Structure formats: structure tokens, C-alpha cells
Amino acid sequence: MTRLERKNREDIDYKGCGGITDAFDDAIKEQWRINDKELDWIAEHASDEELDIMLGNFITYSFSEKKKALNVSNNLIEKCNIKENI
Asked: Mean pLDDT throughout 43-64?
């Protein structure tokens, strides 16, 4: 499932309140359009390099860096969905 296909998902729950960690979680879920299960799976199974690519300063990325970040996120989310049957 690509980021564009995830655009209108209704299973993403933004906390909107709580501590700083909830704010970071919500920002990541909003940027990559992922739900809590996918975020938890990615946090547990992604390598440091993959996390650096996904969580870097996306705004300043060049086009090729953005494409690489999208590919990494799509691959991780696909693996998550296959393993967890989401």
C-alpha cells in the first residue's frame, strides 16, 4: 500500500493530548499515514539506517532522498502488514 493509497485511512488514531512522546507519535503517523500497530512494528523491526531515512528532515531532502524514504517506508509497512495480517 503506497502513501497515496493510505491517504483516506480511518484506522489512524491521533492522540492529540498527553506527553511529548504522543506528539512525536502523532507527527510520525500523520507524515507516513500509518496506524499504531504499524508504528510499533516499525519501531521494533526497522534498522537504524531505515529509521534515520524515515525520520530525517523530510522537507530538506532532495527528490532522490524523498523517493528513497518513501520506498523504505512502503517496504516496512508492507512487511508489517504481511507479518501481522493487518
From this structure: 90
Contact 55, 28 (CB under 8 A): yes
Q: What is the CA 1 to chain-centroid distance, rounded?
A: 12
Q: ∠ CA(61), CA(59), CA(57), 5° rounding?
A: 75
Amino acid of residue 7? K
* Cβ proximity of 21 and 40 under 8 Å: no
What's the pTM?
0.77
- To which residue does cell 518513501 refer? 70
Structural domain boundaries in the chain = 35-84
Q: What is the pLDDT of residues 6-37, one digit of tens each?
A: 777 777 777 777 788 888 888 888 888 889 99
